[in-house]
């Protein structure tokens, strides 16, 4: 049986408000990242769906290192395991 994982994480990214649009564009261009909301104050809600925890931490680092990002923090992280063999059979 081949078990695989999917890591679902949500982040709040605090951005300098004047640069909200450009930072959102950069985040949206990242693989496995989706923006689910933002505010005029510069807060962005990002959801990641990745294969392992390493991708989660790498993506957080990449976002946090974008110019005009003030801070990035993990709000939620869930690990789902599934049998990839049963999906191939269906």
Brief write-up:
The protein is an alpha+beta fold and about 90 residues long. The protein is built from three helices and four strands; from the N terminus they run βαββαβα.
Mass-distribution shape: elongated
Please give the oligomerization state of what you see. Answer: single chain
Alpha-carbon Rg, integer: 15 Å
CATH class: Alpha Beta
Strand order of the largest sheet: 2-3-1-4
Name the poorly predicted regions. none
**Could you spell the SSE succession in H and E letters?**
EHEEHEH
The CATH topology comes to Alpha-Beta Plaits
Average pLDDT: 90
* Class from secondary-structure proportions: alpha+beta
Helical proportion, percent range: 25-40%
The tally of structural domains comes to 1
List the total number of helices.
3
CATH architecture: 2-Layer Sandwich
What is the count of β-strands? 4
Alpha carbon gap, first and last residue: 15 Å
Protein model, in words:
Its main location: cytoplasm. It is found in: Cytoplasm. Chaperone for NapA, the catalytic subunit of the periplasmic nitrate reductase. It binds directly and specifically to the twin-arginine signal peptide of NapA, preventing premature interaction with the Tat translocase and premature export. The model has no long low-confidence stretch (mean pLDDT 90). 16% of the residues are buried. The two termini are 15 Å apart. The protein contains three helices and four strands. Strands 2-3-1-4 form a four-stranded antiparallel sheet. The protein has one domain: Alpha-Beta Plaits (2-Layer Sandwich). 30% of the residues lie in helices and 47% in strands. With 90 residues, the protein is α+β, with helices and mostly antiparallel strands.
